[in-house]
Amino acid sequence: MAKKVFGLTTVDQTSLLRIAILGLISLVAIGSRLYSVIRFESVIHEFDPWFNYRTTRYLVDNGFDKFWNWFDETAWYPLGRVVGGTLYPGIMVTSATIYNALHFVNIPVDIRNVCVFLAPAFSALTAIATYHLGKEVKNATAGLLAAAFIGVAPGYISRSVAGSYDNEGIAIFLLVFTFFLWLRSVRLGSALYAALTAISYFYMVSAWGGYVFIINLVPLHVFALLLMGRYSNRLYVAYSTFYAIGTLASMQIPFVGFQPTFTSEHMAALGTFGLIQLVAFAHFARTLIPAQQFKILLRGAIATLCVVGLGGLVLLTMSGVIAPWTGRFYSLWDTAYAKIHIPIIASVSEHQPTPWPNFFFDLNMLIWLLPAGIYFSFRELSDNHVFLILYSLFASYFAGVMVRLILTLTPIVCVMAGIALANVFEIYLNLRDTKAIAVADTGADAPTAGKPGKPAPAKSPAETIDAKDASSVSSVSEKFVHSSPAFKRFYAYFPKIVVMANFLYFLCMFQWHSSWITSSAYSSPSVVLASRAPDGSQHIIDDFREAYYWLRMNTKPDAKVLSWWDYGYQLAGMADRTTLVDNNTWNNTHIATVGKILASDEDTAYDLARHHDVDYVLVVFGGMLGYSGDDINKFLWMIRIAQGVYPDGFKEEDFYNAKGEYAIGDSASPTMRKSLMHKLCYYRFGDVMGPQGFDRVRKQKLPSSVTLDNFEEAYTTENWMVRIYKVKDLDNLGRDHHAVSAFEGPLYKKASY
């Protein structure tokens, strides 16, 4: 009988220990994501999070009805944007709900802090969901290991640090939790769990466009089981319930609407739903029709369905009833498709194919445990393990095609690594089931062959000679072993100690690697940069917020600001000014127009800017500090996007010099030197850097002369990273203007924090 501790049975002690471990994992998951707040401050990161924060603040201030019907006149000027019908509202509603709940219990927290800390809080929930998923497919040990891995894995931390207020912050939790509920519903054949799966899926649909991964992977799992002859009533109940409730629920999101009924991304789910109904009917008909007749009927039905189904799908797609795959999804199958046909998608860095080092950077040792987990899943090929294998294969492929999708690969890698290590630990941490230990305790010789209790078979002469040689070589050590039972026990434990010591080392190195990557690579907000001086001291570069604050304080509230689409959300959120384009990218023509203005000569750009009521032009320039993410480095993408809409205006080749180089100095092509982008970036820069100055990003000598006639410099930040120009009025053309720089004028003092 097991001994009780504090009145708790062994089962209760184990459960309490698991809860404690999960609690510690959750704390580590949250704590490892707080570097950015500790080193900088509680601030929203990146670009898209600023739109999410701005809309969340609008929801909190104005209520759900106004939020749902909000038409934002300050975005995409002069078109505007119907916000409620063009976003996934899940993250905004979640934050607003938490904010209202905290205020209801008299905890006065600011909505910005709720947004900043939302992703770390949900990372703890993700760890708990991953534990349940690992436990569902293997055991509690695998679940705890998987939870520990995903709590610190850089592949997930990259999108869930404090301040990273993006859809993925809650979506990965929903992804893992939905898959756990799905596998539980398949194992039990439970309509209740299937309905919960649908509800979790609906929450996922409201939060992130990555819900398409769920609605394709789940049908693929069902289809694979049908092909393997694993149809069951459990599978029928689970999928039918999930698809019916989940599809109807997802259609309640305005941005999704009726897409599940007519877009190619959802046709696999619809087709699988129809197929499983037919398979269920076939199993029912088999009980009523003689076997021979049933085979003939089944073959004819399968052939007819294949021809009719495939023909109908092709016909409906060609006729436009079923919308074809979007360009974003085509780029997952053909990596060159976006660059050729949709450069605006290819221009985004996170849409590029994944370099091999990124897998080791974001997953470290987990990447080589993934194949081991797949192997162990094949050994125990249950319905749930089929799902894990499919998830692993497809997520690995998509992660290789698009660097952003390492995010969806990370959960299954953590689960598979947990399964692999759980199997290893079952063998090497089992210290009670070793025959050699019993030998060490009793001092008896262990049988070497035959069944227990029977003598070993006689050895041949050759075997006897080999045994004598081996005995003579190890006679001293053999005597020592026989003389020490404690050494026998150590000798029996030694292989296990070596293996476990190695894995302990790998686990410690994984934790160290994850903490270092999180601290150095994923905890710096793009809106606030930091550099190190030669003496090791940190220097904060706050040019972005400085520029946005200047716009907010020194321009009219209805001023229109033109910039490349990367900065639209930040301009709207921090400067509170009207923008022509932002990060939504829904209107390729509008973005191409901005690219055309920046790529045109000054006179043409001025006419276009006046035509679009532009008051200010903002460019990001890193030539002084060496900031490589500036607009000059992005300029070729602006040209490609503009060229796709305005092919007669200019060509990309015009911006290369006679040697085919992308140059910025006196050796640059005439088209490049005349472009508005080139002039706005390098205007007066040579005066600051001197005659021998050079661009610290391009490592090229500066142009000798840059003049402006139709635009006047309004403000340049302290480190020259953001430059703002005013579009001159018609009556001011030709006058000599001298702009205020952060180095010389009082505006910097006015704009400081």
Automatic annotation (TrEMBL):
- Please give the superkingdom of this protein's source: Eukaryota
Keywords for the protein's UniProt record, in alphabetical order? Glycosyltransferase, Transferase
What top-tier enzyme class does this entry carry?
transferase
Q: What is its EC number?
A: 2.4.99.18
Q: What is this protein called?
A: Oligosaccharyl transferase stt3 subunit
The taxonomic lineage of its organism, from the top, reads: Eukaryota, Fungi, Fungi incertae sedis, Zoopagomycota, Kickxellomycotina
Gene assigned in the entry = STT3_1
